[in-house]
Amino acid sequence: MRYNYKDLGLVNTKEMFAKANKEGYAVPAFNFNNMEQMLAIVEAAALKGSPVILQCSGGARTYMGRTVVPMLAKAAVDVARDMGSDIPIALHLDHGSSFEQAKDCIEWGFSSVMIDASHHSFEENIAESKKVAEYAHAHGVTVEAELGVLAGIEDEVEAEEHIFTQPHEVEEFVKASGVDSLAISIGTSHGAHKFKPGDDPKLKLDILAEIETKIPGFPIVLHGSSSVPAKFISMIKEFGGEIKDAIGIPDEQLRGAAKSAVAKINVDTDGRLAFTAGIREVFVKNPKEFDPRKYLTPAKNYMRDFYMEKIENVFGSEGAYKKGTK
């Protein structure tokens, strides 16, 4: 069974990005791996009246199954509408590795795809991105590409060092590839262990500003933008987990970026930490518990509540659309 994203109630990212850039906020793009995480994301967005992108990596899609992912996305739309909210919801492939993978996702209900050919040469990156864009646009699907490389490890993405995006390349890349948004490297990083305590992580906002002058009004994307909340690191340790102390990207820097041309900010690690903290807390406080509903529900709620804070304080997207009710 194949799916068209419109039949699932989903939208592509074109209009939501245009509205975000015009009104000075960024659309939250949250990764999910199961039903509970999907519910946490859509409940947070609906309650805050924020557009949202449900992000699914290749690994997450393999884990859930390509027949399950579009049904969870459809359920997300139905949940939002049942809550009385009209927020637009997109289903996006995060870090697509090939044309074939992007094509398969489009045929199975994704409304947006990323092709990450940033590890290739500039010319090869353009060629691969253009190939995906041409196919996607024929199906009404929007495309994100990446120029520059983020350091860190998260899911199927790994790089040892940053390669900052070169502003003088972006105009040619965007025009030649035909993509709809561009992920750039300005100091964010994948994974939980972005920076050590005592580091002073700063985004290269000067690079961002120069890129804006090269492609004015074009939607920019930031990957690896989790803040790595200390409270969840502490909870995981308190309740028996092992995780290194780390810090992420400061919220105030991300909020500043969201007010500019950054139309989409990706967050994955923060959700994983919140979810894990919730499960560990139940297992330690109630060691006899074996009902999944009793530990997955608190995990979902921690994730939902944290994302509600992020939507309001970091993305600035609260109230962009009609707010729902619980």
Automatic annotation (TrEMBL):
Keywords: Lyase, Metal-binding, Zinc. InterPro entries: Aldolase_TIM, Class_II_FBP_aldolase, FBA_II, Fruc_bis_ald_class-2. It holds the Pfam family F_bP_aldolase. It comes from the Bacteria. Gene3D superfamilies: Aldolase class I. Its cofactor is Zn(2+). NCBIfam families: cbbA (TIGR00167), fruc_bis_ald (TIGR01859), PRK07084.1 (NF005481). This is Class II fructose-1,6-bisphosphate aldolase. It comes from Psychrilyobacter piezotolerans.
